[in-house]
Amino acid sequence: MLIGELSRRTGVSTRLLRYYEAQGLLNAERGTNGYRCYDDDTVVTVRQVRALLDAGLTTEVIRAVLPCARGEQPEIEMCADVRAILNRVLADTDERIGDLQRSRSVLVGYLGAKA
């Protein structure tokens, strides 16, 4: 299928699909006319990428995790290094949450209000 069809089937803009390809998340064959051509499995891959982005993962992390993703949701099979990668992302997320909670406490103090 061409990029326009993939966009219609996934609801993802052609610009984002090109970006995903540039990030190594999607593979496209090139026709003799130079157009990108995707197989039907790419629809699932795009949905996996969107779900992983929604989970807060970067495209760099997704590139490492994607080979272990199964299904559209996706479920992650704990392939080599994936558990360590996801644990690192979780620790970073917890640290950001702590930073936000500290910022919130300071702002509440400035307002003289209770949390």
Automatic annotation (TrEMBL):
<protein>
    <submittedName>
        <fullName>MerR family transcriptional regulator</fullName>
    </submittedName>
</protein>
<keyword id="KW-0805">Transcription regulation</keyword>
<keyword id="KW-0804">Transcription</keyword>
<keyword id="KW-0678">Repressor</keyword>
<dbReference type="InterPro" id="IPR000551">
    <property type="entry name" value="MerR-type_HTH_dom"/>
</dbReference>
<dbReference type="InterPro" id="IPR047057">
    <property type="entry name" value="MerR_fam"/>
</dbReference>
<feature type="domain" description="HTH merR-type">
    <location>
        <begin position="1"/>
        <end position="68"/>
    </location>
</feature>
<dbReference type="InterPro" id="IPR009061">
    <property type="entry name" value="DNA-bd_dom_put_sf"/>
</dbReference>
<keyword id="KW-0238">DNA-binding</keyword>
<dbReference type="Pfam" id="PF13411">
    <property type="entry name" value="MerR_1"/>
</dbReference>
